[in-house]
Amino acid sequence: MSTGFTLSDARNLNDFLDENPENAALIKALYLPLMVRGTNQLIQNVHAEVQLLSTGARVLGLVLPQKQAAFPDESYVASPYGQYVDYGRYETALELGKLRWLNFLANQVFDLLGKICRRAKFDQVVLIDNLLFSTNLYPRTIDYDLDALHQFLLKQFPDRALVFRSICPEVYPAWYEALKNLRYKAVFSRQVYLLRAHEGAHRLKRALEIDTRLANKQKHLRWSELQVGEEVHLERILELYNQLYLEKYARLNPQYSLEFIQHLFTGGIIRIKALWHGEKIVAFTGYFTLDGVMINPLIGYDQAYPQKEGLYRLLTMETMLEAEKQGMLLNMSSGAAHFKRLRGAQAFLEFNLVYDRHLSFFRRLPWAMTRAIAVPTIWLVRRYGL
């Protein structure tokens, strides 16, 4: 493995791409537009600088959030503050709203955490190899000298914590152990649901039979995969994504622009399957795969469509079957715990791996607090099956 690292920003981008053709499709479709256009032009609630780093084996995207996390609804995909303070508060109200005393106590904690995080520049981090999806993926094996990369980044960014997002030990045991050996802290992120679709785990559950019967009754619905040249339908895709993630759930979810989705789609990074009722798309699943793992960072369905049609059940089944067809482990992300368990998914903890030992005590304090808060949070997640 090579230990020679080179860094690029927008000023020397062309030369860098000529010298580093590795994983060029991902670089050109995802990171290059963000560097040229600016992150908040393509993802409205992400304010960050994007740089590229060649490891000698492949190219990583580095996401550097702006120093002040003062933007409303800043997405958790590029903001520790957005994840642990804003989204933490939202999830607590959503899941534990009926337990008023607990919700009140949690809000007091979030108020205090928020004040400290702002003053301690919590968002002044380097998010390494960050795809800006709700779930981050990595190669299953480490393909470069991680220790050398760590030392390189410390020299380049001495005033920022180093963060690897979305490390689930069940999926990435090598990454988890290697980063822990480099004295990175495992900070609880969330509980995710993994479906061993490549082993047929969903076929052991009665829910698949029930969902299949539902799908067979829907003679008026049909699935098709969008092809390059059909970009006209992406506006509807974005509309359905926004209905679900931004309007029904939280505006802290990434607010993707049509232009960004077009880059991902035409670059072959995201594949999209659409469910049609006549000439209208009523649901879709958009998935991304890397080294045997599948995620679907883009999904949506028509909120005005009759609930009895079971659009969410249908798009979930289609995603599971696609993962099975491709021989993939399906990371179904968090939420809808009971629904996913009924379909064979298992719950596992996910962490952000953080290195902040080079920073002052006050700068390390937010990460220490989030680790402390994680202890009761994990208990609550397991106790209530969240």
Question: What does this protein look like?
Answer:
With 386 residues, the protein is α+β, with helices and mostly antiparallel strands. The chain has two domains: 6-190 and 349-383, no CATH class; 194-346, Aminopeptidase (3-Layer(aba) Sandwich). The protein has 13 helices and twelve strands. Strands 1-2-3-4-5-12-6-11-10-9-8-7 form a twelve-stranded mixed β-sheet. Helix 2 packs antiparallel against helix 10 (258-266) and helix 4 packs antiparallel against helix 5. It is globular, with a radius of gyration of 21 Å.
As residue ranges, the low-confidence spans are: none
- Widest beta sheet: strand line-up: 1-2-3-4-5-12-6-11-10-9-8-7
Helix vs. strand class: alpha+beta
Beta strand %: 15-25%
How many domains? The number is 2
Q: On the 0-100 scale, what is the average pLDDT?
A: 91
Q: Rough shape?
A: globular
Tell me the span between the first and last alpha carbons: 41 Å
